[in-house]
Design a protein that fits this description.
alpha+beta; 2 domains; about 20% helix; two-stranded antiparallel sheet; 16-stranded antiparallel beta barrel
Length: about 600
């Protein structure tokens, strides 16, 4: 600004001088006689004008200095403002970054929520589509929070035997006839749909507790009015009917179910029983099982070990010969009590059977050990075998009498083991089973006796052994199986010296008469439906061992969302050997061919 003022002042001075020079020159040209006084006056005026201009310039310089000071103040203020602005910008940038992070976090959260909502929506859509699909083709029925799944199969089956048993597709192995039986010279063929099965599974959730109920039935039972003549209307049979509560590895199950003796494929889980793949509804000799009432408690230890204990419905099976009327085990059923009053023998039981089992699955194979504890009781009449007019030994009581009657209880039981292995990606299964003990015969497929009776009327335990080996091959369409098993019942007998002549008593006695087992007898009636009595006269024929070999396969014609259709044949050969008597040791054998065509519900 100072430089600008100096330039302006110089220009003004030069301009005035130029104008003065121009005016003087003009005056000299116009009048040659200009006076000195006029020049002096003009110079004085010019000096005053110059002084005035200098004062103006000085004032202007002061104004410029004042403005420079103001400009410096402004510059300082601007610097401060800029510094404040920079600091504010930095703070604003930091705040913006923080806000951006919060915004980014909020945005990420929103995206995650959106993804979750999208996933939930997709899952909900899938569930909806599934429910729509289930409504069109439901796999289960949903009722008040309970999932109900129907199951079972429809069966068309046949059986052919070279020796007649008058039996459906379940084989009574201890009835295999000897050559002295009329039916031992006749074959038989039957067609049946009675193994068709109806099942219903109900599952629900209560807090952390899983609730399960299961019902299963078929038609392999015979009411007293049932026959094959026209309607073939056989009664519906209860196979299984139980409920279960499971929580934190514990399970409590009660009802009619497979006995804890029965081998399972997974832990001790119900509905995972390792049943033989046979068509024969009595399964295969050597297989230990029962379906009966039970109360079971089980604990699962990390899917590696299971412990279970059960109380199960007891029953005494008895076979004895040569006894006097000096004991009572049970009776026929009471029709008013809804038990079979025609051919059902019900023992008067002391207590339920106690069964315990431990299962191990270490990573390869499935292993079980189990034990049975059972009590057997009868009422004994020491004087019941006394002949009329004779005195009861050691007393003054004459003739048969209930004097001194008492209850006698015997304890029996056994130990067993099961093992199963899978090879070649679970395409080959191999299993072994064993059970042995006293009074455990009824837990075997053949149904050999638990006990016999001694001459004094007290019960005697029959030693029993059961063994089975199974081999199964599996492909996508085909299951092939082979079974080999045996069941053994030991001798238990005595001599009744209270009668004359003395006779052997019990089971498998060498003195039992077997002379009529191999000699055919005439029919027992003239109506065509009364073959020679079974057991035959003079043919005791107590079973020592029953052996069976079985081979068969199942071919799946269709297996898909509409269910499963399969067909299969089975061949079995059974040998029944007896204890040697007087004379001889009779034996029987049976060839059986069964077929089955089944449709399983999906």
């Amino acid at each position: 600004m100072r430089q600008v003022a100096s330039v302006v002042l110089t220009l003004l001075l030069v301009g005035h001088l130029t104008m003065a020079q121009s005016s003087a020159s003009g005056t000299r040209k116009a009048t040659a006689k200009s006076s000195q006084s006029q020049v002096s006056a003009q110079l004085t005026q010019m000096q005053k004008a110059l002084e005035s201009q200098q004062q103006q310039i000085q004032q202007l310089m002061q104004q410029l200095q004042s403005r420079d000071g103001q400009i410096q103040q402004l510059q300082q203020q601007m610097t401060q403002v800029q510094s404040s602005a920079t600091e504010a910008q930095q703070k604003a940038d930091a705040a913006a970054a923080q806000n951006n992070q919060q915004d980014v976090a909020a945005l990420k959260s929103s995206v995650a929520d959106l993804q979750t909502n999208t996933t939930n929506t997709a899952l909900s859509l899938q569930d909806t589509q599934k429910r729509i699909g289930e409504m069109e083709s439901p796999l289960a029925i949903h009722f008040k929070g309970i999932t109900i799944t129907p199951g079972g199969f429809l069966a068309a089956e046949t059986v052919w035997r070279n020796r007649a048993l008058a039996a459906d597709v379940n084989t009574p192995f201890t009835s295999i006839p000897f050559s002295g039986n009329n039916q031992g010279h006749l074959s038989e063929f039957y067609g049946s749909g009675r193994q068709s099965r109806i099942a219903l599974l109900a599952e629900g959730k209560l807090s952390n507790t899983k609730l399960t109920g299961y019902y299963e039935s078929d038609f392999l039972s015979a009411a007293v009015t049932s026959n094959n003549n026209q309607s073939n209307s056989y009664s519906l049979r209860q196979r299984q009917l139980w409920g279960q509560a499971a929580l934190h590895g514990w399970s409590f199950t009660a009802g009619q179910m497979w006995s804890l003796v029965t081998e399972t494929k997974k832990g001790v889980d119900n509905r995972s029983e390792a049943l033989p793949m046979t068509i024969d509804a009595q399964y295969t000799v050597g297989f230990s099982w029962a379906r009966q009432y039970g109360v079971r408690v089980a604990k699962n230890f990390h899917d590696k070990m299971w412990l279970a204990v059960s109380l199960e419905n007891p029953q005494t099976t008895l076979t004895t010969h040569g006894n006097s009327p000096n004991f009572v085990v049970g009776s026929l059923g009471n029709s008013g009590g809804l038990y079979n009053a025609f051919n059902g023998n019900y023992s008067f039981n002391v207590a339920p059977d106690l069964i315990g089992k431990a299962v191990f699955e270490p990573g390869f194979g499935h292993y079980e050990i189990f034990g049975i504890l059972a009590e057997f009781r009868d009422r004994v009449f020491p004087c019941g075998a006394t002949a009329a007019g004779a005195s009861c030994q050691g007393t003054n009581v004459t003739g048969p009498s209930a004097f001194g009657a008492f209850n006698s209880t015997k304890v029996g039981g056994g130990l067993g083991a099961n093992a199963r292995w899978s090879f070649v990606q679970k395409k080959v299964d191999f299993g072994l089973h064993f059970l042995g003990g006293n009074g455990v015969g009824r837990y075997g497929t053949a149904g050999l006796a638990d006990v016999t009776a001694r001459p004094d009327g007290q019960l005697g335990m029959i030693r029993s052994y059961q063994g089975l080996g199974t081999l199964e091959l599996h492909t996508a369409k085909l299951d092939v199986y082979g079974n080999g098993g045996a069941e053994y019942a030991g001798r238990h007998f005595g001599i009744n010296n209270l009668v004359v002549p003395a006779v052997p008593v019990g089971y498998g006695a060498p003195g039992f008469v077997n002379s009529g087992c191999s000699t055919e007898q005439v029919p027992g009636g003239a109506n065509g439906f009364t073959p020679a009595a079974n057991p035959l006269p003079k043919c005791t024929g107590d079973t020592r061992v029953i052996i069976e070999g079985t081979f068969g396969f199942w071919y799946r014609l269709y297996n898909g969302p509409k269910g499963r259709v399969q067909w299969g044949p089975q061949y079995s050969y059974v040998v029944r050997n007896t204890w040697a008597g007087t004379p001889g040791q009779p034996a029987g054998n049976e060839n059986m061919v069964l077929t089955s065509f089944r449709y399983y519900l999906p």
